[in-house]
């Protein structure tokens, strides 16, 4: 099943909106995450057992990012295809390699002169080979998933079945959507979790505060009987602050204007490509006091929010519009509900089992499509 030209990323204008409208009714429904809570929780429990097996005698995991990548693969295998990929046992090495090559090539394409637009460069050939490997993997698993879902009700809560209930979505559109979710979901969620755990391990007083709040809100996080994930306020604050400290993408939302607009007294004409520099704004004192410090408390309601005054005199709280890790508006991330739920689950369940310790040098940011740590994050897991 050829899906190369039918994903949201490849569509434009009305053609894009036709598919987006169908998908968001299911994917961005606030209740959609509940369909996958039990599945994600089960995989996270297996992940914690895996960490216990891979840490050394002193409790160190040499590269938490590598292990989180395996977790992302396993979660996506379950919610996208209803199958386990055995990634904790180094399963599907060819898919791992193809995903890495895909993102390496995409990152390389952003630098220098785009000669790959003129002829098939070595980089483009590597990218093409990797995408062929991934397309074969996606198509085989998608077809197998559909067949098994016809034979058993066990698969009723995986993404394909939920979307198939929307009669206007074609199989080709569905396959391309699942493929895009799988590709983007591995790298983005892995890097986000890597930085979130690093920040908590580097700030033990914040970590302890979060641990106490998690245990106070939900002693067992979660149980299989829960219909939705309970998120303690300080947990969401810690995640938001990690997003602020390390913005997950190179830039924020960007749009090609379809009409002239006025922004803060500047007239920007139709057709101009506007890119929001959210990563820069996240570190500006104008919006965040002590902007270089990790302070989750700034996101709690009882703290006075910073404000910005516009040229027309209106004063507003700018923070919600500065930290937009999943984008904003009609083009916000279609997989947001599932990604957020995985992030909260992993952090909460890891802290319930371990105290996280980081005693290495400061981790810096490597600028890629999805920002990544500049070196392996070596975490020590101390049993609680």
TrEMBL record:
GO terms for molecular function: heme binding; iron ion binding; monooxygenase activity; oxidoreductase activity, acting on paired donors, with incorporation or reduction of molecular oxygen. It holds the Pfam family p450. Keywords: Heme, Iron, Metal-binding, Monooxygenase, Oxidoreductase. It comes from the Eukaryota. Its cofactor is heme. Heme binds at residue 333. InterPro entries: CYP11_CYP27_families (IPR050479), Cyt_P450 (IPR001128), Cyt_P450_CS (IPR017972), Cyt_P450_E_grp-I (IPR002401), Cyt_P450_sf (IPR036396). CDD domains: CYP24A1-like. Belongs to the cytochrome P450 family. This is Cytochrome P450 3A19-like.
